[in-house]
Amino acid sequence: MSARSRNLFLVPYTLWIVLFVAAPIALIAYRSLFDVEGALTLDNYARFFTPVYLRMTVSSFWYALLITLFSLLVAYPAAWALTRAKHKQLWLLLIILPTWINLLLKVYAFLGIFGTYGSVNQLLELVGIGTQQILFTDFSFVFVSVYIFIPFMILPIFNALEELNPSLVFAARDLGASAWTTFAKVVFPLTIDGVKAGCQAVFIPALSLFMITRLVAGNRVITLGTAIEQHFLVTQDWGMGSTIAVFLILVMVAIMFAAGQRKGVIR
Amino acid sequence: MKSLIRSFAAILVVALGCLYLTSWLNSSQGYSGANTLTIYNWGDYIDPELLEEFQEETGITVIYQTFDSNEAMMTKIQQGGTTYDVAMPSEYAIDKMKQEGLLLPIDHARLPNLKHIDERFLDLRFDPGNGYSVPYFWGTVGIVYNPELVPDGLVFDSWDDLWDPRLGNGLMLVDGAREVIGFGLNSLGYSLNDTNEAHLQEALAKLQKLTPNVKAIVGDEIKMLLANEEATAGVVWSGDAAEIMDENDKLDYVIPKEGSNVWFDNMVIPRTARNLDGAYRFMDFMLEPEHAARNAEYVGYSTPNKDAVPLLPEEIRSDERFYPPPQLTSRLEVYDNLGKRMLSHYNELFLEFKMHRK
């Protein structure tokens, strides 16, 4: 293939990146410099560092952390079991299947399942615990978010575990390592890249969740995503919405760098 | 490479073909003809029989399109792709559209039936002299509650009843900054258009004390959740309340005595209009008391047409929840356009209220 035709094939990709990645980010950064009345100002950034937005940031990070942690706790053993399963591809398909269903539909389903007269409460009533408030609690928010994000955590970990040479595990056991030591010193360090990829794939979108916060948490959980949504749709204070978005982009870049850096150190 | 170019060319040809086909279909069905009227309204917000009658009476073909938020409607009209002749925005949207030059002025001489509209609903601050809009429906903000579930003695005739500790985590609020901050202000005896910072902070402090009772702050789902008895009480628009009570007749609606918000959906002529004559005929048709009464009966909202009210069935017109007596309506306020900066501030206060933990 000549260099010219190779360049030609690069055109669609470059166009895509420029039009749909670089331009929107530039536009957001530009927008963040204007206040509600369209005057050029840095006020939005000053406003971001007021208690309202700082508390929102802290709570966003806290919930994103919880969601990532619980996803990891469920996903790692699941991925491990998956590598040992008989019909690997079928199980994998079953895990990916829910991602084909619209997010809104899945979230709406939980309104019915967790509701006062929903199936979970009927079960609790049956076993004698009695009806509990499940919907609109921190628990339901984290639970539904974990449910939504789990395929994105399982897949990279599964791939990492698949690539792991099983003889390394056997060697460790032969040399007298306990099951736990084998996991902590051999398996986990060798699959850390998968874990990192999974954590990134969960933590970053979890930071800017907005629809679930309203539907499942009843707006009792407020994240930066909620604030962006409100500023764009309700107040039309696009400047402040963009400022929060810029902040989120910076955080995401920082996280990706941090994750990348540590990888270098371990190797 | 060649096949790539060929497939590009094929796509281009198909796209152009589709473009031609739609324009041909549109013109063959008279969509771009002079005798059509494009109406842009909220979903399920008109009696379809009236549309039929209007078409028979005038020979005008009606194209009826719906929107689900004022913002979506404004965007479409701004883009100007479709020639909407009549639209039904809410009052704050009318103010905005007027300022942005999206509306055409209304000639009252061409609307003889305008005289049937109650004076209370004319010449309001969002559209002085009704230069750009004509009332279509109106409603309030109030409390829907389940008499079987509420503690004794609570009838929610006052906003303060929401703060009753016995309600315990049984309250749902609609996700609107103006509504929630508004009833916070109302409960303190201030106007819901108050911009005094001290009053706003006082309202926020009072609202934060409400937090233990608040189960959730939700959007449109509030209708489904309240109808399913997920909560004891909820702060909602009267239109939603009518729908909720339609689903579950155990529930009741009340407008607290301290006052509340009154909202409007008015008919306007967007600047995209092509068939001005048809637009006037349609608006006048809807202002006709008999038509307005039938429409109000179908939709279930309150009609601003004073001569249509006597034509409504007794049980509807005597329902003080939807046709409140004058001593209450005098305490209802329309939302003023507070300007983007103040709206943003309201929203920040609302966010602060939402973040307040139990």
In short:
The complex is a heterodimer of chains A (about 270) and B (about 350). Chain A has about 270 residues and is an all-alpha fold. Chain A has helices at about 5-30, 45-50, 50-85, 90-95, 105-115, 120-125, 140-165, 165-175, 180-190, 190-205, 210-215, 225-235, 240-265.
Describe this structure in words.
The complex is a heterodimer of chains A (267) and B (358). With 267 residues, chain A is an all-alpha fold. Chain A is 77% helix and 0% strand. Chain A has helices spanning 3-31, 43-48, 51-84, 88-96, 103-114, 119-126, 138-163, 166-174, 179-190, 192-207, 211-215, 224-233, 238-266. Chain A is globular and about 70 Å long. The model of chain A is unreliable at 263-267 (pLDDT under 50). In chain B, the strands form two sheets. In chain B, strands 4, 5, 6, 7, 8, 9 and 10 form a seven-stranded mixed beta sheet that branches. Chain B has a three-stranded parallel beta sheet with strand order 2-1-3. In chain B, helix 5 (177-187) crosses helix 13 (339-355). In chain B, helix 2 (48-58) links the parallel strand 1 and strand 2. The mean pLDDT of chain B is 89. Helices cover 41% and strands 16% of the residues of chain B. Chain B is of the alpha/beta class and 358 residues long. Chains A and B meet through helix 3 and helix 12 of A and strand 6, helix 7 and helix 13 of B.
Fill in the keyword field for this structure.
heterodimer, A: 267 residues, mainly alpha, globular, B: alpha/beta, 7-stranded mixed beta sheet, 3-stranded parallel beta sheet, 13 helices, 10 strands
